[in-house]
Amino acid sequence: MAQSPTKPALVGRLKSPHRSVLRSFADFAVGTPARPARFFLPDFIIHPPVLLKDGKSIASLDQAADVVQSHAGAAPDDETTSVLHRLQDAATMEFAADAADAFRQWAADKNLMQKR
After folding, report:
1. Is pLDDT larger for residue 94 or for residue 116?
2. Taking the C-alpha atoms of 16, 21, 27 and 30 in order, what is their torsion angle to the nearest 10 degrees?
3. How many CB atoms lie within 10 A of CB 21?
4. Which tens digits make up the pLDDT trace of 75-95?
5. How far is 80 from 63, CA to CA, in rounded Å?
6. Predicted local confidence at residue 50, as pLDDT
7. How many CB atoms lie within 10 A of CB 87?
8. What is the mean pLDDT of residues 51-55?
9. 35 vs 104, which has greater pLDDT?
């Protein structure tokens, strides 16, 4: 697959957790719309992980956002929408920690968590 002439070849070959940061920089450099600031914290660790009834262990903001999106369906309620936005928009460690706490409370309210 040939690289786009407007993007550096390094981005396509790089195999590291920083690939998305470099890709975002390359997109910025050629005028592609920027991603939300959250891309710096997708792997923010939720500790302890949230254990769901279906056996999943949710330990990152990305995993939590996926659960909320799959549970929300076509017509999410206001609380679900709020939690999803908090997970997706967390741009600092403080906001990420608050989003993780909001997810934990949301999962408990929706009766999705395992009993301890």
Report:
1. 94
2. -100
3. 15
4. 789 999 999 999 999 888 899
5. 15
6. 95
7. 29
8. 95
9. 104
d(CA 102, CA 7) in angstroms, rounded, equals: 38
End-to-end CA distance of the chain: 50
Where does residue 22 rank: exposed (0-12), middle (13-18), buried (19+ CB within 10 A)? Answer: middle
| Cα separation, 21 vs 13, whole angstroms | 14
pLDDT tens across 17-32, in order?
A: 444 444 444 444 554 4
Write out the two tokens for 51.
């254990």
Q: What is the pLDDT of residue 2?
A: 52
Q: What is the 3-state secondary structure (H, E, C) of 56-105?
A: CEEEEHHHHHHHHHHHHCCCCCHHHHHHHHHHHHCCCHHHHHHHHHHHHH
Q: Among all chains, which residue has been given the structure tokens 């920690």?
A: 97
Go through 37-64 and write b for each residue having 16 or more CB atoms within 10 A of its CB, e for each that does not: ebebbbebebeeebbeeeeeebbbbbbb
Nearest to 79 by CA among 54, 110, 35: 110
